[in-house]
Structures are given as C-alpha cells and as structure tokens.
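ugh finaly. both done.
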Amino acid sequence: MKMKLKKILSRFLKLHPKEIDLSLDRIKFLCNKLGNPQDKIKAISVVGTNGKQSTINAIFSILKEAKKKCNVYTSPHIRRINERFIFDNKEIDDEKLGNLFEEVEEINNNQPITFFEILSACYFYKAAQYPNNINLIEAGLFHRFDATNILKNNLASIICSISRDHLDWLPKDQQTVEKIVFEKTSSLLNSNIIISKQNSIHTTNCIKKSISKNKSKKLFFNEDFSFSHGENNFFYFEDKFGGLKIPMPNILGQFQLENISTAIATLRLLDFDIKEDDIKNGISKIESVARLQEIQSGKLKELVKSNRLIIDGSHNEDGARVLNEFLQTLNCNKHVIIGMMANKDHEKYISYFKDISSITTIDIPGQPNSISGKELKKKFKNIHKVQYKENIEQAIKSISLKEDDVLIITGSLYLAGEMLNLN
C-alpha cells in the first residue's frame, strides 16, 4: 500500500511544473468539480509563521477530552503523508488515503494543479463527509493565495506568531514583516479573530492595522487574554470569563504556554461547552512531534546513552529565538546538531544561539533543496566555533557528552522527520 501511495504522490507532483504557484484559481476549479466541499464544513483557520501546529495540537487535545469530533489538516508532514489528514479524531490509514487520492485524481483529470493544492482539495472533499465535526485547518504559505483560503465562512481565524520566513517568495524590496503580515491577515474572514502573543509590539501593531476594517470580534493576547507563571508547576490563564489555574502541560518550552493560552481563549470564545477539567486534562495529553520533542528511546537515543536528546524542527529566526529561550532555562552544557534548507536566513538563525558548548552541522539526507553541512559550517564560522560531519551518527559520536549534558537536533522540520524515522 505504501508503494501505491508513493506512486500517486509522484503523479501529483507532476501535475504542475512549480512546487508553489500562488493563485486560488486551480483549487477553486477542482473544488467546484468536487461539489465545493469547503462550503460544507465548520472550520477554525490557523495562520502565522510559528506556533500553528502547536496551537492546533492544543485545541485538538482539549476538544478530544471534551468528546468532540475533529478533522485536522496540517503541513508539512514530519514522517509520513497520513499525518496531514485526520478525520473523526484519527489519522487516516494508507488504504483510505490511497482511495481518496485516486478519486480526486480522477475528477481532476490531469488538469494543472500544485501538490499542496490537490492535497488541500482531497482534505476538503473528505472533510465534507463529516459535516458536524470541527475542522482545524493550518494555512500553508502566506495565506492570501494559499489553497486553504477558499472558505466562504469559518468559526474563527487564529493569528499565531508572525515573523520573517519564506522570503524567497517575495520580491527583494518587499521582504518585510509588514508585507508578511499583509499576506497572512488581509483576507481573513469576518467571524472571530484571536491574535497570539507576537514577538514585538511593532508586529502586533502591523496586525491591528491590517485587520482594522475586518468586522470580526477580535481577541488580542495581553489585552483580552493572558497567562502568567504560578508556583508548584502551575500557570494561570485569564480572560473575560475568569481565571483558570492550570497544571503545566506535558510539552517543553515557554512558547507552548503562549500557544496553549491562544487555544484556550479560542475555545472559550466559541462556547463549545468546554469544561475546566477538559482543558486541564487536555493540555496534559498534547501530542507534539518535532517541537522540542524529547526522545526517550530508539537508535539515536542509544547513541547518547543517559544524556537528554531533544529534536526540534525550528527553522527561522523566531523559531531560533523561542528554542534558545528554552535552552537558557537549562543549567547544563548544550550541544547542537544543525541541518537546514537552502532558502533560510542561516546567519540570522544561528545568531540566537548563546552559551552553546558545541555546534555540528550535517547534511539533510534526501533533500535536494537543503544546504550542505559544509556550506552551513562556512556560514556559521564567524559566529560560533563549528564542526561538520556527514551524517547524524558521526555527529553524535564526535561530541564528548558529559553527565547531564543535553543534545539538541534542530534547524529543519525535514531534518526532524529524517531523525525521527531513523530513530
């Protein structure tokens, strides 16, 4: 069956000469032939640069605890394509996914369409079979011309942290936060908009300006909802409905509290009859892959023995910032292994790493759009003392880990996926 899926996906890739071609015409044309399934679903749309999947994971976990049925569409996948397609609270199996792809492929009838667009059409087509489910839909690139932006109405839009990324898709003179905010927020639907904590007041002000004419009800972090750290492994959430004292979640990182707070604010605003216990229990069961994911067992874990091993898919400057905020909380030596895609701002990414004991660059296997570890080392050498190793096993063996040292593998979601599969 896996072979069948691979063959279909390779056919999908050949339907359009470009990986990305920013336009809504093709997806609208195909969805029209599919009966406009996107008009038959209840959706929460999630846009932004960082924190989209983490926010969705938190909402999904709380809704499951409240016995609500969800469909979830995210990208990219980390280990296998099925991860992008969750229906009725379960990841779709190979056979059902293959059948779905073939049905949509036949209806598309070899018309030009990008890979992401046909995957999005497949999601909408299947999601329409569950009209009562809540759909959690992660926007792809920018949103304004993104294939997920064909809904006519939704329950809410969430704006996660916005920063500079995917700049190669913008003209040189428009590679600014202002332009990225415009692309991600200017075409949001009129319903409810929940704005997560942003990395600067300037970004928040850009968002306010961009959505000023949008008639949605708007909730801003720190104005309409907030959180604060408590003692004894608790944190406090507060909004107009009152305060909640909540146990710390089962996932690492301060930024996760920001995403969880946004999730809670959204669910309380939408009045899904979520109880306090659903929230408390839900955030203790969040499934988070490649977001500060601590590896407890497996081949790579065996190589680091008793030392902690963390895999994190952060790949842009804001991701580097929140990763390093977490690393600053660790009172130990930190060793970092990094592989990155070619189109990232590598120097900006590495500039956030402080008090690191060693940095090792590696190649990302099977990714033609990645930068070689040797080239990455050259880019990093002015900022850090850095070594290059061809693969992960060599990299880990070359690092002399002492008791309590932590090893972090980061720089790319593609690298994270390769490492998790290898592990």
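ok and the 2nd:
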Amino acid sequence: MTAPPPLRLLIVDDQPLIRRGLAMMLATEAGIEVVGQAGDGVEAIEMAAALQPDVVVMDLQMPRASGVVATREITRAQPGTKVVVLTTYDHDELVFEAISAGAGAYLLKDATEAEVLETVRAVHRGESHLSPAIARKVMDRFRALSQQLPAPEATAARPVDPLEEPLTEKEERVLELLSQGLSNKQIAAAVFLAEGTVKNYVSRIMEKLHARSRTELAVRAVGRRA
C-alpha cells in the first residue's frame, strides 16, 4: 500500500527562536513536512499562496499584518488550508476574532508538544480543538449574549435567519455532538454511521450555516441553543 502524502505545514511566528523551534520539533514527526516559515502576517499570506500547505500554525500578534488578518485571507483564498492558532494571548476579543476569521483550533503557548502535534493532525483530519480555557471563554460569551437578548413572547418561535437553510433531524444530532467536542469517529459511533458519512454531514452543515471552520460551527451550535 502506498503511504499517504505527508502533512504539509507552514509555521508563522515573528519570534525566530520560537518559529525555528516549532519547525524542528514538528519536522521530526512521522508524516509531517515543514514546507516553510514566515515571520509576519503578510509573509504568511504570500507563502501560503505559493506553498499551498495543509495546515498553518499561526501566531496572532505580528508586524505588518496580524495573525487574524492572515488567517482570514488564507482561509478565504484557500479553503482547504487549515489554521491552528498558537499564541500567548487569550484575550476574549482575539479569541473570537480568530475563530470568526476561520481558525480551526486555538492553543496557548503553554500547550505541550503532544497537544500541539495532536491538534495539527486533528485539524488536518477536519476536526477542531480549543484548549479548555479558551472553550470556557467561548461558552461564557454565548451565555452573556443570550442573557442580553430580549425575552421572546411565550408563543413566538425562534427567528430563523433567512440565509440559514434548515437542518435535517440527523444533521441537528450531528451538530449537537460536534458542539460537545466529539471527533468524527466518536460521532460516527454515537449515531451508527460510517466516519466518512459523518464527515460529509459536517461539510453539509457547515455549508448550510455558513461556517468556515469546524470550530466556528461548534460556536454557532452553542448560539443556536442560546
């Protein structure tokens, strides 16, 4: 059997020591090829377009263009490229801006090497990951937003976004499990479907809800329940 092609990785960080350290660490892992390193957001956008990496490990606070700007441009131009944010900053607005820009994962730089590696591979598989502290921020934000909304009339139904295509019962179930942080494999076991079928369901739900990443989709799921 022919071995699958290596996961092509681009490392983006304005601190050379961190950038090179990450590249050296990840390049030693089986099935991963570090195809480039960028020192700022503009360089990241240019290198992503030229190299077409599978995954970009992205810092946020950088010169010329921030990681949020770079993430938005890369995921817009190359939907197949996934972005893992790896930063020292956990400010609420940065978290939500990065997720809205299309980041598939958000890790802090105190993450272990194993966590970084597993997150890179998980995002490449089409999954998502938020560190526990970041996940709590996301949930807290939606709880706060839901409390600010005016209470609906007792008989009024939840307003439907005119751009939002209704989900089927099966899609609603898959979305609920996804929002709980389950992987495609775990969802497949829960709903008695093949893993590939679940992946197709997730893609269709993302399309219906206009989500650019699995993480954004999980966030939208929380918002739908609010």
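summary for the 2nd one i guess: DSSP finds ten helices and six strands in the chain.
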